[in-house]
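Worked example 4.2. Below are the chains of a multi-component assembly; read each line carefully before continuing.
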Amino acid sequence: MDQLLEQLTNGLAVGSIYALIALGYTMVYGVLKLINFAHGDLFTYGAYLGLTLLTSLLAHDRMGLGLRLLLLAVMVMGLVAVIGVVVERAAYRPLRDSPRLSAVVSALGASIFLQNALMLLYGARYQVYPDVLPQNAVRLGDLSIPVVRIAVVAVSVVMMTVLYLFVQKTRIGTAIRAAAIDQGAARLMGIDVNKVVVLVFVIGPALGGAAGLLVGLYYGQIGFTMGWTYGMKAFTAAILGGIGNIPGAMVGGLLLGVIEALGAAYLSVAWKDALAFAVLILILIVRPSGLLGERVAEKV
Amino acid sequence: MHRRLVIGYSVTAAALAACPFLLGPYWLDVLNNVGLYVLLALSLNLILGDAGLFNMGHAAFYAVGAYTAAILNTRLQIPILWLLPASGLVAAVFAIAVARPVVHLRGDYLLIVTIGLGEIVRIALVNDVFGLTGGANGIFGISRPSVLGHRIRRPDEFFWLIWACVAATAFLFHRLEQSRFGRALTYLREDTVAAEGSGIPTARYRLLAFGLGAAWAGMTGTLYAAKMTIISPESFGFWESVVLFLMVILGGAGSIPGVAVGAALVVGLPELFRGFANARMLVFGLVMMVMMVVRPQGLLPFRTPRYKASDLKAAFGSEGAGEPAAPGAPGSGIAP
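Applying the procedure described above to all two chains together yields the following C-alpha coordinates:
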Protein backbone atom coordinates (compact mmCIF):
# COMPACT_ATOMS: atom_id res chain seq x y z
CA MET A 1 0.00 0.00 0.00
CA ASP A 2 2.80 2.37 0.93
CA GLN A 3 4.65 1.48 -2.20
CA LEU A 4 1.51 2.10 -4.21
CA LEU A 5 1.06 5.59 -2.75
CA GLU A 6 4.75 6.31 -3.12
CA GLN A 7 4.64 5.34 -6.80
CA LEU A 8 1.40 7.23 -7.27
CA THR A 9 2.88 10.52 -6.04
CA ASN A 10 6.04 9.87 -8.00
CA GLY A 11 3.98 9.24 -11.11
CA LEU A 12 1.98 12.42 -10.56
CA ALA A 13 5.21 14.46 -10.35
CA VAL A 14 6.63 13.00 -13.57
CA GLY A 15 3.21 13.18 -15.14
CA SER A 16 2.81 16.86 -14.40
CA ILE A 17 6.10 17.48 -16.20
CA TYR A 18 4.87 15.42 -19.18
CA ALA A 19 1.68 17.45 -19.11
CA LEU A 20 3.55 20.76 -19.25
CA ILE A 21 5.52 19.60 -22.29
CA ALA A 22 2.45 18.01 -23.85
CA LEU A 23 0.69 21.38 -23.81
CA GLY A 24 3.28 22.68 -26.27
CA TYR A 25 2.71 19.78 -28.65
CA THR A 26 -1.01 19.96 -28.40
CA MET A 27 -1.29 23.73 -28.94
CA VAL A 28 0.99 23.70 -31.98
CA TYR A 29 -0.82 20.70 -33.37
CA GLY A 30 -4.14 22.33 -32.69
CA VAL A 31 -3.31 25.43 -34.73
CA LEU A 32 -0.86 24.18 -37.37
CA LYS A 33 -1.69 20.43 -37.53
CA LEU A 34 2.04 19.86 -37.26
CA ILE A 35 4.06 17.73 -34.86
CA ASN A 36 6.68 20.09 -33.53
CA PHE A 37 9.57 17.67 -33.28
CA ALA A 38 11.81 20.41 -31.95
CA HIS A 39 9.62 20.88 -28.89
CA GLY A 40 11.44 18.23 -26.86
CA ASP A 41 14.68 20.07 -27.53
CA LEU A 42 13.20 23.37 -26.41
CA PHE A 43 12.45 21.59 -23.15
CA THR A 44 16.13 20.61 -22.91
CA TYR A 45 17.12 24.21 -23.59
CA GLY A 46 14.99 25.19 -20.62
CA ALA A 47 16.92 22.79 -18.41
CA TYR A 48 20.34 24.00 -19.62
CA LEU A 49 19.52 27.70 -19.56
CA GLY A 50 18.12 27.15 -16.09
CA LEU A 51 21.39 25.62 -14.99
CA THR A 52 23.46 28.50 -16.33
CA LEU A 53 21.22 31.18 -14.89
CA LEU A 54 20.88 29.38 -11.58
CA THR A 55 24.63 29.28 -11.09
CA SER A 56 24.89 33.02 -11.63
CA LEU A 57 21.78 33.81 -9.59
CA LEU A 58 23.11 31.85 -6.64
CA ALA A 59 25.84 34.46 -6.32
CA HIS A 60 23.24 37.14 -5.52
CA ASP A 61 22.34 36.16 -2.01
CA ARG A 62 20.63 39.38 -1.07
CA MET A 63 17.39 38.08 -2.53
CA GLY A 64 15.39 35.32 -0.87
CA LEU A 65 15.48 31.85 -2.41
CA GLY A 66 11.85 31.96 -3.49
CA LEU A 67 12.28 35.28 -5.25
CA ARG A 68 15.39 34.07 -7.02
CA LEU A 69 13.65 30.91 -8.21
CA LEU A 70 10.72 32.96 -9.48
CA LEU A 71 13.09 35.26 -11.33
CA LEU A 72 14.90 32.22 -12.71
CA ALA A 73 11.65 30.68 -13.95
CA VAL A 74 10.57 33.91 -15.65
CA MET A 75 13.94 34.31 -17.36
CA VAL A 76 14.08 30.71 -18.54
CA MET A 77 10.54 30.79 -19.87
CA GLY A 78 11.19 34.07 -21.67
CA LEU A 79 14.41 32.87 -23.29
CA VAL A 80 12.99 29.54 -24.40
CA ALA A 81 9.96 31.36 -25.80
CA VAL A 82 12.34 33.49 -27.89
CA ILE A 83 14.02 30.35 -29.20
CA GLY A 84 10.61 28.89 -29.95
CA VAL A 85 9.59 31.90 -32.00
CA VAL A 86 12.88 31.81 -33.90
CA VAL A 87 12.37 28.12 -34.68
CA GLU A 88 8.90 28.86 -35.98
CA ARG A 89 10.22 31.61 -38.21
CA ALA A 90 13.13 29.61 -39.56
CA ALA A 91 11.79 26.09 -39.84
CA TYR A 92 7.99 26.18 -40.00
CA ARG A 93 6.76 29.44 -41.49
CA PRO A 94 8.46 28.96 -44.89
CA LEU A 95 6.71 25.59 -45.13
CA ARG A 96 3.25 26.60 -43.95
CA ASP A 97 1.66 25.71 -47.30
CA SER A 98 3.96 22.83 -48.24
CA PRO A 99 3.00 19.17 -48.04
CA ARG A 100 3.08 17.58 -44.59
CA LEU A 101 6.18 15.57 -45.25
CA SER A 102 8.30 18.66 -45.90
CA ALA A 103 7.22 20.22 -42.63
CA VAL A 104 7.94 17.00 -40.75
CA VAL A 105 11.43 16.76 -42.20
CA SER A 106 12.10 20.42 -41.47
CA ALA A 107 10.92 19.91 -37.89
CA LEU A 108 13.26 16.96 -37.51
CA GLY A 109 16.07 19.06 -38.95
CA ALA A 110 15.36 21.79 -36.44
CA SER A 111 15.44 19.21 -33.67
CA ILE A 112 18.78 17.78 -34.79
CA PHE A 113 20.18 21.28 -35.17
CA LEU A 114 19.10 22.44 -31.73
CA GLN A 115 20.29 19.29 -30.03
CA ASN A 116 23.74 19.43 -31.58
CA ALA A 117 24.10 23.15 -31.00
CA LEU A 118 23.48 22.44 -27.32
CA MET A 119 26.06 19.66 -27.35
CA LEU A 120 28.64 21.94 -28.92
CA LEU A 121 27.94 24.64 -26.32
CA TYR A 122 27.83 22.54 -23.17
CA GLY A 123 29.62 19.32 -24.10
CA ALA A 124 28.18 15.85 -24.35
CA ARG A 125 28.43 14.93 -20.67
CA TYR A 126 25.62 15.01 -18.16
CA GLN A 127 25.31 18.24 -16.19
CA VAL A 128 24.40 18.41 -12.53
CA TYR A 129 22.18 21.02 -10.91
CA PRO A 130 23.33 22.47 -7.60
CA ASP A 131 21.21 21.51 -4.60
CA VAL A 132 19.14 24.56 -3.82
CA LEU A 133 15.79 23.18 -2.84
CA PRO A 134 14.92 22.07 0.70
CA GLN A 135 15.28 18.35 1.19
CA ASN A 136 12.65 17.86 3.89
CA ALA A 137 9.56 15.77 3.45
CA VAL A 138 5.95 15.87 4.51
CA ARG A 139 4.87 12.88 6.57
CA LEU A 140 1.44 11.39 6.04
CA GLY A 141 1.18 8.41 8.35
CA ASP A 142 3.89 6.01 7.19
CA LEU A 143 4.30 7.80 3.93
CA SER A 144 6.81 10.59 3.49
CA ILE A 145 6.54 12.76 0.43
CA PRO A 146 9.42 15.10 -0.46
CA VAL A 147 8.34 18.74 -0.48
CA VAL A 148 9.96 19.19 -3.89
CA ARG A 149 7.70 16.56 -5.36
CA ILE A 150 4.63 18.35 -4.08
CA ALA A 151 6.03 21.64 -5.35
CA VAL A 152 6.56 20.23 -8.85
CA VAL A 153 2.96 19.09 -9.05
CA ALA A 154 1.66 22.34 -7.55
CA VAL A 155 3.67 24.57 -9.88
CA SER A 156 2.55 22.60 -12.93
CA VAL A 157 -1.07 22.60 -11.90
CA VAL A 158 -0.99 26.37 -11.31
CA MET A 159 0.57 26.99 -14.72
CA MET A 160 -1.89 24.72 -16.46
CA THR A 161 -4.83 26.34 -14.72
CA VAL A 162 -3.65 29.79 -15.73
CA LEU A 163 -3.25 28.64 -19.31
CA TYR A 164 -6.66 27.02 -19.33
CA LEU A 165 -8.33 30.19 -18.03
CA PHE A 166 -6.36 32.28 -20.51
CA VAL A 167 -7.46 30.18 -23.46
CA GLN A 168 -11.07 29.87 -22.32
CA LYS A 169 -11.81 33.30 -20.88
CA THR A 170 -9.82 35.95 -22.75
CA ARG A 171 -10.27 37.44 -26.21
CA ILE A 172 -6.82 36.29 -27.31
CA GLY A 173 -7.58 32.81 -26.03
CA THR A 174 -10.74 32.79 -28.09
CA ALA A 175 -8.68 33.78 -31.13
CA ILE A 176 -6.38 30.80 -30.53
CA ARG A 177 -9.32 28.44 -30.31
CA ALA A 178 -10.87 29.93 -33.42
CA ALA A 179 -7.65 29.52 -35.40
CA ALA A 180 -7.43 25.92 -34.24
CA ILE A 181 -10.91 25.13 -35.49
CA ASP A 182 -10.76 26.82 -38.88
CA GLN A 183 -7.94 29.10 -39.96
CA GLY A 184 -9.75 30.44 -43.00
CA ALA A 185 -12.89 31.36 -41.08
CA ALA A 186 -10.78 32.85 -38.29
CA ARG A 187 -9.06 35.08 -40.83
CA LEU A 188 -12.42 36.21 -42.17
CA MET A 189 -13.41 37.21 -38.64
CA GLY A 190 -10.40 39.52 -38.52
CA ILE A 191 -8.05 37.29 -36.55
CA ASP A 192 -4.40 37.59 -37.53
CA VAL A 193 -3.55 33.89 -37.72
CA ASN A 194 0.17 34.58 -37.97
CA LYS A 195 0.03 36.37 -34.64
CA VAL A 196 -1.84 33.44 -33.14
CA VAL A 197 0.83 31.05 -34.41
CA VAL A 198 3.58 33.20 -32.90
CA LEU A 199 1.67 33.34 -29.63
CA VAL A 200 1.34 29.56 -29.61
CA PHE A 201 5.08 29.32 -30.19
CA VAL A 202 5.58 31.62 -27.21
CA ILE A 203 3.31 29.79 -24.79
CA GLY A 204 4.27 26.21 -25.74
CA PRO A 205 8.05 26.64 -25.50
CA ALA A 206 7.72 28.77 -22.36
CA LEU A 207 5.86 25.93 -20.64
CA GLY A 208 8.30 23.40 -22.08
CA GLY A 209 11.21 25.46 -20.80
CA ALA A 210 9.60 25.63 -17.37
CA ALA A 211 9.25 21.85 -17.46
CA GLY A 212 12.95 21.57 -18.28
CA LEU A 213 13.81 23.76 -15.32
CA LEU A 214 11.60 21.64 -13.07
CA VAL A 215 13.29 18.45 -14.26
CA GLY A 216 16.69 19.98 -13.50
CA LEU A 217 15.66 21.10 -10.04
CA TYR A 218 13.79 17.89 -9.24
CA TYR A 219 16.11 15.22 -10.61
CA GLY A 220 19.35 17.21 -10.44
CA GLN A 221 20.83 15.70 -13.61
CA ILE A 222 20.30 16.76 -17.21
CA GLY A 223 21.65 15.57 -20.55
CA PHE A 224 21.48 17.08 -24.01
CA THR A 225 19.51 14.17 -25.48
CA MET A 226 16.85 14.01 -22.79
CA GLY A 227 14.46 16.08 -24.90
CA TRP A 228 13.88 13.09 -27.17
CA THR A 229 12.64 10.76 -24.42
CA TYR A 230 10.61 13.39 -22.61
CA GLY A 231 9.33 14.71 -25.91
CA MET A 232 8.07 11.31 -27.05
CA LYS A 233 6.45 10.67 -23.68
CA ALA A 234 4.82 14.09 -23.70
CA PHE A 235 3.61 13.55 -27.23
CA THR A 236 2.12 10.24 -26.11
CA ALA A 237 0.43 12.15 -23.30
CA ALA A 238 -0.98 14.66 -25.78
CA ILE A 239 -2.39 11.87 -27.95
CA LEU A 240 -3.67 10.01 -24.91
CA GLY A 241 -5.68 13.02 -23.83
CA GLY A 242 -6.75 13.92 -27.35
CA ILE A 243 -4.38 16.05 -29.38
CA GLY A 244 -5.35 19.66 -29.83
CA ASN A 245 -7.23 19.50 -26.54
CA ILE A 246 -5.68 21.47 -23.67
CA PRO A 247 -7.35 19.77 -20.68
CA GLY A 248 -6.67 16.51 -22.53
CA ALA A 249 -2.93 17.15 -22.48
CA MET A 250 -3.04 17.71 -18.73
CA VAL A 251 -5.07 14.57 -18.04
CA GLY A 252 -2.98 12.55 -20.49
CA GLY A 253 0.27 13.70 -18.92
CA LEU A 254 -0.75 12.87 -15.37
CA LEU A 255 -2.23 9.54 -16.46
CA LEU A 256 0.86 8.54 -18.42
CA GLY A 257 3.12 9.47 -15.51
CA VAL A 258 1.10 7.29 -13.15
CA ILE A 259 0.88 4.39 -15.64
CA GLU A 260 4.63 4.52 -16.11
CA ALA A 261 5.46 4.71 -12.41
CA LEU A 262 3.13 1.83 -11.59
CA GLY A 263 4.39 -0.16 -14.56
CA ALA A 264 7.98 0.32 -13.48
CA ALA A 265 7.14 -0.70 -9.93
CA TYR A 266 4.91 -3.70 -10.58
CA LEU A 267 5.83 -4.96 -14.03
CA SER A 268 9.40 -4.27 -15.00
CA VAL A 269 11.74 -1.28 -14.86
CA ALA A 270 13.52 -2.37 -18.01
CA TRP A 271 10.30 -2.19 -20.03
CA LYS A 272 9.25 1.20 -18.65
CA ASP A 273 9.95 3.13 -21.86
CA ALA A 274 8.33 0.46 -24.02
CA LEU A 275 5.20 0.77 -21.90
CA ALA A 276 4.72 4.41 -22.89
CA PHE A 277 5.05 3.52 -26.58
CA ALA A 278 2.67 0.61 -26.18
CA VAL A 279 0.13 3.00 -24.65
CA LEU A 280 0.67 5.32 -27.61
CA ILE A 281 0.10 2.61 -30.20
CA LEU A 282 -2.89 1.18 -28.38
CA ILE A 283 -4.60 4.52 -28.06
CA LEU A 284 -4.03 5.27 -31.74
CA ILE A 285 -5.54 1.95 -32.74
CA VAL A 286 -8.43 1.91 -30.30
CA ARG A 287 -9.36 5.56 -29.88
CA PRO A 288 -7.28 7.86 -32.07
CA SER A 289 -9.19 10.89 -30.86
CA GLY A 290 -7.82 10.35 -27.36
CA LEU A 291 -9.66 10.25 -24.05
CA LEU A 292 -11.13 13.75 -24.22
CA GLY A 293 -11.09 14.28 -27.98
CA GLU A 294 -14.26 14.22 -29.98
CA ARG A 295 -13.61 14.63 -33.66
CA VAL A 296 -12.65 11.12 -34.70
CA ALA A 297 -13.10 11.48 -38.42
CA GLU A 298 -10.49 14.19 -38.73
CA LYS A 299 -7.77 12.13 -37.09
CA VAL A 300 -7.70 8.99 -39.17
CA MET B 1 15.54 10.28 -69.41
CA HIS B 2 15.75 6.54 -69.71
CA ARG B 3 18.90 6.80 -71.80
CA ARG B 4 20.50 9.14 -69.25
CA LEU B 5 19.64 6.71 -66.51
CA VAL B 6 21.35 3.83 -68.32
CA ILE B 7 24.43 5.98 -68.89
CA GLY B 8 24.44 7.05 -65.25
CA TYR B 9 24.22 3.47 -64.02
CA SER B 10 26.95 2.30 -66.40
CA VAL B 11 29.33 5.05 -65.31
CA THR B 12 28.62 4.39 -61.64
CA ALA B 13 29.08 0.65 -62.09
CA ALA B 14 32.36 1.15 -63.94
CA ALA B 15 33.65 3.57 -61.29
CA LEU B 16 32.67 1.20 -58.50
CA ALA B 17 34.23 -1.78 -60.24
CA ALA B 18 37.52 0.10 -60.34
CA CYS B 19 37.42 0.87 -56.61
CA PRO B 20 38.79 -2.44 -55.23
CA PHE B 21 41.91 -1.89 -57.35
CA LEU B 22 42.40 1.74 -56.34
CA LEU B 23 41.28 2.13 -52.74
CA GLY B 24 42.62 0.84 -49.47
CA PRO B 25 40.68 -1.32 -47.01
CA TYR B 26 39.40 1.67 -45.02
CA TRP B 27 37.69 3.35 -47.95
CA LEU B 28 36.44 0.03 -49.27
CA ASP B 29 34.81 -0.52 -45.91
CA VAL B 30 33.20 2.92 -46.17
CA LEU B 31 31.89 1.94 -49.60
CA ASN B 32 30.57 -1.32 -48.15
CA ASN B 33 28.65 0.68 -45.58
CA VAL B 34 27.35 2.91 -48.36
CA GLY B 35 26.20 -0.22 -50.19
CA LEU B 36 24.34 -1.53 -47.16
CA TYR B 37 22.65 1.82 -46.67
CA VAL B 38 21.70 2.00 -50.34
CA LEU B 39 19.99 -1.37 -49.90
CA LEU B 40 18.21 -0.19 -46.77
CA ALA B 41 17.21 3.13 -48.29
CA LEU B 42 15.85 1.37 -51.40
CA SER B 43 13.82 -0.94 -49.19
CA LEU B 44 12.43 1.99 -47.24
CA ASN B 45 11.74 3.75 -50.52
CA LEU B 46 9.17 1.08 -51.36
CA ILE B 47 7.24 2.03 -48.24
CA LEU B 48 7.94 5.74 -47.91
CA GLY B 49 8.62 6.77 -51.48
CA ASP B 50 6.39 4.50 -53.53
CA ALA B 51 3.49 3.91 -51.17
CA GLY B 52 3.85 7.25 -49.37
CA LEU B 53 3.66 5.71 -45.89
CA PHE B 54 5.67 7.64 -43.31
CA ASN B 55 7.66 4.84 -41.75
CA MET B 56 10.22 6.03 -39.22
CA GLY B 57 10.80 2.66 -37.62
CA HIS B 58 12.48 0.93 -40.51
CA ALA B 59 15.46 -0.05 -38.36
CA ALA B 60 13.12 -2.45 -36.56
CA PHE B 61 12.70 -4.59 -39.69
CA TYR B 62 16.42 -4.40 -40.35
CA ALA B 63 16.98 -5.58 -36.76
CA VAL B 64 14.47 -8.44 -37.04
CA GLY B 65 16.27 -9.70 -40.16
CA ALA B 66 19.72 -9.35 -38.67
CA TYR B 67 18.74 -11.07 -35.42
CA THR B 68 16.91 -13.88 -37.23
CA ALA B 69 20.01 -14.60 -39.27
CA ALA B 70 22.33 -14.27 -36.28
CA ILE B 71 20.26 -16.54 -34.02
CA LEU B 72 19.78 -19.26 -36.64
CA ASN B 73 23.43 -19.05 -37.62
CA THR B 74 24.91 -19.23 -34.13
CA ARG B 75 22.47 -21.80 -32.72
CA LEU B 76 21.91 -24.08 -35.69
CA GLN B 77 25.11 -23.39 -37.67
CA ILE B 78 23.19 -22.73 -40.88
CA PRO B 79 25.46 -20.91 -43.38
CA ILE B 80 24.63 -17.23 -43.16
CA LEU B 81 23.85 -16.55 -46.81
CA TRP B 82 21.39 -19.44 -46.90
CA LEU B 83 19.46 -17.52 -44.28
CA LEU B 84 18.70 -14.61 -46.60
CA PRO B 85 15.23 -15.91 -47.52
CA ALA B 86 14.44 -16.90 -43.95
CA SER B 87 15.37 -13.53 -42.47
CA GLY B 88 13.54 -11.72 -45.27
CA LEU B 89 10.45 -13.81 -44.63
CA VAL B 90 10.53 -13.32 -40.87
CA ALA B 91 10.98 -9.56 -41.28
CA ALA B 92 8.11 -9.41 -43.78
CA VAL B 93 5.75 -11.42 -41.58
CA PHE B 94 6.68 -9.26 -38.60
CA ALA B 95 6.13 -6.06 -40.60
CA ILE B 96 2.76 -7.14 -41.94
CA ALA B 97 1.65 -8.26 -38.48
CA VAL B 98 2.57 -4.97 -36.80
CA ALA B 99 1.51 -2.73 -39.70
CA ARG B 100 -1.88 -4.39 -40.13
CA PRO B 101 -3.66 -2.48 -37.35
CA VAL B 102 -1.98 0.88 -38.00
CA VAL B 103 -1.58 1.14 -41.75
CA HIS B 104 -4.78 3.16 -42.14
CA LEU B 105 -3.50 5.98 -39.92
CA ARG B 106 -2.96 9.36 -41.46
CA GLY B 107 0.61 10.49 -42.33
CA ASP B 108 2.18 11.84 -39.19
CA TYR B 109 0.23 9.55 -36.88
CA LEU B 110 1.75 6.62 -38.71
CA LEU B 111 5.14 8.29 -38.30
CA ILE B 112 4.74 8.42 -34.53
CA VAL B 113 3.44 4.85 -34.35
CA THR B 114 6.37 3.52 -36.34
CA ILE B 115 8.80 5.44 -34.12
CA GLY B 116 7.12 3.70 -31.20
CA LEU B 117 7.36 0.28 -32.86
CA GLY B 118 11.04 0.82 -33.58
CA GLU B 119 11.70 1.76 -29.98
CA ILE B 120 9.72 -1.19 -28.63
CA VAL B 121 11.75 -3.57 -30.81
CA ARG B 122 15.00 -2.01 -29.63
CA ILE B 123 13.97 -2.20 -25.97
CA ALA B 124 12.86 -5.80 -26.49
CA LEU B 125 16.29 -6.64 -27.92
CA VAL B 126 18.06 -4.94 -25.02
CA ASN B 127 15.89 -6.87 -22.55
CA ASP B 128 16.93 -10.17 -24.08
CA VAL B 129 13.46 -11.14 -25.21
CA PHE B 130 12.81 -14.94 -25.13
CA GLY B 131 16.42 -15.31 -23.95
CA LEU B 132 17.49 -15.31 -27.60
CA THR B 133 18.86 -11.86 -28.36
CA GLY B 134 21.72 -11.67 -25.89
CA GLY B 135 20.59 -8.42 -24.24
CA ALA B 136 22.58 -5.23 -24.57
CA ASN B 137 25.72 -7.12 -25.64
CA GLY B 138 23.97 -8.63 -28.61
CA ILE B 139 25.08 -11.74 -30.45
CA PHE B 140 28.65 -12.48 -31.45
CA GLY B 141 30.44 -15.23 -33.28
CA ILE B 142 28.32 -15.05 -36.44
CA SER B 143 30.13 -16.99 -39.12
CA ARG B 144 31.58 -15.42 -42.25
CA PRO B 145 29.67 -15.97 -45.46
CA SER B 146 31.03 -18.15 -48.21
CA VAL B 147 30.15 -18.03 -51.89
CA LEU B 148 30.83 -21.14 -54.01
CA GLY B 149 33.20 -22.47 -51.39
CA HIS B 150 35.13 -19.22 -51.19
CA ARG B 151 35.12 -17.69 -47.71
CA ILE B 152 34.49 -13.93 -47.64
CA ARG B 153 36.60 -12.06 -45.13
CA ARG B 154 38.37 -8.99 -46.46
CA PRO B 155 36.68 -5.68 -47.28
CA ASP B 156 37.36 -6.09 -51.01
CA GLU B 157 35.65 -9.49 -50.99
CA PHE B 158 32.66 -8.04 -49.17
CA PHE B 159 32.67 -5.19 -51.64
CA TRP B 160 31.77 -7.52 -54.51
CA LEU B 161 29.14 -9.34 -52.46
CA ILE B 162 27.41 -6.20 -51.22
CA TRP B 163 27.49 -4.26 -54.44
CA ALA B 164 26.29 -7.28 -56.42
CA CYS B 165 23.29 -7.28 -54.11
CA VAL B 166 22.84 -3.55 -54.70
CA ALA B 167 22.93 -4.03 -58.47
CA ALA B 168 20.44 -6.88 -58.30
CA THR B 169 18.17 -4.84 -56.04
CA ALA B 170 18.29 -1.77 -58.24
CA PHE B 171 17.45 -3.87 -61.28
CA LEU B 172 14.58 -5.68 -59.55
CA PHE B 173 13.14 -2.50 -58.09
CA HIS B 174 13.23 -0.77 -61.47
CA ARG B 175 11.27 -3.70 -62.87
CA LEU B 176 8.92 -3.52 -59.88
CA GLU B 177 8.33 0.17 -60.52
CA GLN B 178 7.03 -0.65 -63.99
CA SER B 179 4.93 -3.56 -62.82
CA ARG B 180 1.26 -3.60 -61.95
CA PHE B 181 2.22 -3.52 -58.27
CA GLY B 182 4.55 -0.53 -58.65
CA ARG B 183 2.07 1.47 -60.71
CA ALA B 184 -0.65 0.73 -58.17
CA LEU B 185 1.58 2.06 -55.39
CA THR B 186 2.33 5.25 -57.30
CA TYR B 187 -1.35 5.72 -57.93
CA LEU B 188 -2.39 5.29 -54.33
CA ARG B 189 0.34 7.61 -53.15
CA GLU B 190 -0.82 10.34 -55.51
CA ASP B 191 -4.50 10.01 -54.77
CA THR B 192 -5.78 7.32 -52.44
CA VAL B 193 -9.44 7.98 -53.08
CA ALA B 194 -9.07 7.87 -56.85
CA ALA B 195 -6.99 4.71 -56.59
CA GLU B 196 -9.62 3.07 -54.42
CA GLY B 197 -12.25 4.19 -56.89
CA SER B 198 -10.34 2.57 -59.73
CA GLY B 199 -10.47 -0.75 -57.97
CA ILE B 200 -7.07 -0.80 -56.30
CA PRO B 201 -7.35 -2.47 -52.88
CA THR B 202 -5.29 0.22 -51.17
CA ALA B 203 -5.04 -1.40 -47.74
CA ARG B 204 -3.71 -4.63 -49.22
CA TYR B 205 -1.20 -2.84 -51.43
CA ARG B 206 0.04 -0.77 -48.49
CA LEU B 207 0.57 -3.89 -46.42
CA LEU B 208 2.35 -5.56 -49.32
CA ALA B 209 4.62 -2.55 -49.65
CA PHE B 210 5.37 -2.80 -45.94
CA GLY B 211 6.06 -6.51 -46.24
CA LEU B 212 8.28 -6.23 -49.29
CA GLY B 213 10.25 -3.28 -47.90
CA ALA B 214 10.70 -5.08 -44.61
CA ALA B 215 11.79 -8.27 -46.36
CA TRP B 216 14.50 -6.36 -48.17
CA ALA B 217 15.59 -4.63 -44.98
CA GLY B 218 15.69 -8.02 -43.26
CA MET B 219 17.91 -9.48 -45.95
CA THR B 220 20.18 -6.46 -45.70
CA GLY B 221 20.30 -7.17 -41.97
CA THR B 222 21.63 -10.63 -42.80
CA LEU B 223 24.39 -9.13 -44.92
CA TYR B 224 25.18 -6.71 -42.10
CA ALA B 225 25.36 -9.53 -39.56
CA ALA B 226 27.64 -11.48 -41.87
CA LYS B 227 29.90 -8.48 -42.36
CA MET B 228 30.15 -7.46 -38.70
CA THR B 229 29.97 -10.96 -37.09
CA ILE B 230 28.64 -9.09 -34.03
CA ILE B 231 25.29 -7.38 -33.76
CA SER B 232 23.89 -5.44 -30.85
CA PRO B 233 20.72 -3.40 -30.26
CA GLU B 234 22.51 -0.07 -30.48
CA SER B 235 22.99 -0.56 -34.25
CA PHE B 236 19.22 -0.50 -34.71
CA GLY B 237 18.17 2.57 -32.76
CA PHE B 238 15.87 5.43 -33.57
CA TRP B 239 18.69 7.38 -35.14
CA GLU B 240 19.18 4.67 -37.75
CA SER B 241 15.55 4.99 -38.79
CA VAL B 242 15.86 8.77 -39.01
CA VAL B 243 18.93 8.52 -41.21
CA LEU B 244 17.18 6.09 -43.56
CA PHE B 245 14.17 8.37 -43.71
CA LEU B 246 16.40 11.28 -44.65
CA MET B 247 18.21 9.34 -47.35
CA VAL B 248 14.89 8.72 -49.07
CA ILE B 249 13.57 12.26 -48.64
CA LEU B 250 16.77 14.15 -49.45
CA GLY B 251 17.60 11.89 -52.41
CA GLY B 252 14.12 12.08 -53.89
CA ALA B 253 11.26 9.93 -52.61
CA GLY B 254 10.15 7.33 -55.11
CA SER B 255 13.19 7.72 -57.34
CA ILE B 256 15.60 4.76 -57.26
CA PRO B 257 18.71 6.64 -58.44
CA GLY B 258 17.76 9.55 -56.18
CA VAL B 259 17.50 7.37 -53.10
CA ALA B 260 20.80 5.69 -53.91
CA VAL B 261 22.48 9.07 -54.26
CA GLY B 262 20.85 10.20 -51.01
CA ALA B 263 22.23 7.16 -49.19
CA ALA B 264 25.69 7.68 -50.65
CA LEU B 265 25.72 11.35 -49.61
CA VAL B 266 24.37 10.83 -46.11
CA VAL B 267 26.86 8.05 -45.34
CA GLY B 268 29.72 9.22 -47.48
CA LEU B 269 29.93 12.96 -46.81
CA PRO B 270 30.44 12.66 -43.03
CA GLU B 271 33.37 10.35 -43.78
CA LEU B 272 34.94 13.00 -45.97
CA PHE B 273 34.48 15.65 -43.28
CA ARG B 274 35.73 13.64 -40.34
CA GLY B 275 37.70 16.69 -39.25
CA PHE B 276 34.52 18.53 -38.29
CA ALA B 277 33.11 15.48 -36.56
CA ASN B 278 31.28 17.51 -33.92
CA ALA B 279 29.69 20.11 -36.10
CA ARG B 280 28.56 17.82 -38.91
CA MET B 281 25.27 16.85 -37.30
CA LEU B 282 24.58 20.55 -36.81
CA VAL B 283 25.10 21.11 -40.52
CA PHE B 284 23.00 18.05 -41.24
CA GLY B 285 20.04 19.50 -39.39
CA LEU B 286 20.48 22.80 -41.16
CA VAL B 287 20.64 21.10 -44.57
CA MET B 288 17.35 19.34 -43.82
CA MET B 289 15.62 22.62 -43.09
CA VAL B 290 17.08 24.40 -46.12
CA MET B 291 16.39 21.50 -48.48
CA MET B 292 12.72 21.44 -47.57
CA VAL B 293 12.40 25.10 -48.55
CA VAL B 294 14.65 25.07 -51.61
CA ARG B 295 14.15 21.62 -53.09
CA PRO B 296 11.53 19.58 -51.24
CA GLN B 297 11.28 17.01 -54.00
CA GLY B 298 14.85 15.80 -53.33
CA LEU B 299 18.07 15.88 -55.31
CA LEU B 300 17.02 13.51 -58.10
CA PRO B 301 13.25 13.58 -57.91
CA PHE B 302 10.86 10.92 -59.10
CA ARG B 303 9.85 11.49 -62.69
CA THR B 304 6.38 10.59 -63.76
CA PRO B 305 6.67 7.72 -66.19
CA ARG B 306 5.85 8.78 -69.72
CA TYR B 307 4.71 6.36 -72.34
CA LYS B 308 5.16 6.80 -76.04
CA ALA B 309 2.22 6.27 -78.34
CA SER B 310 3.98 3.22 -79.78
CA ASP B 311 4.19 1.67 -76.28
CA LEU B 312 0.49 2.09 -75.85
CA LYS B 313 -0.22 0.61 -79.24
CA ALA B 314 1.82 -2.39 -78.28
CA ALA B 315 0.02 -2.68 -74.97
CA PHE B 316 -3.59 -2.02 -75.95
CA GLY B 317 -3.68 -2.87 -79.63
CA SER B 318 -4.42 -0.31 -82.31
CA GLU B 319 -7.95 0.71 -81.26
CA GLY B 320 -6.94 1.96 -77.78
CA ALA B 321 -4.01 4.07 -78.89
CA GLY B 322 -5.81 7.28 -79.66
CA GLU B 323 -8.14 7.31 -76.69
CA PRO B 324 -6.35 7.25 -73.33
CA ALA B 325 -4.90 10.46 -71.91
CA ALA B 326 -1.65 8.62 -72.03
CA PRO B 327 1.26 10.72 -70.76
CA GLY B 328 1.88 10.34 -67.09
CA ALA B 329 -0.92 7.92 -66.36
CA PRO B 330 -0.46 7.79 -62.57
CA GLY B 331 -0.92 11.37 -61.42
CA SER B 332 1.56 14.16 -61.73
CA GLY B 333 4.72 13.08 -59.95
CA ILE B 334 5.54 13.59 -56.29
CA ALA B 335 6.12 17.32 -56.35
CA PRO B 336 3.02 19.36 -55.70
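Take a moment to check your reading of the output against the notes. Chain A has one domain: 2-299. The first helix of chain A runs from residue 2 to 32.
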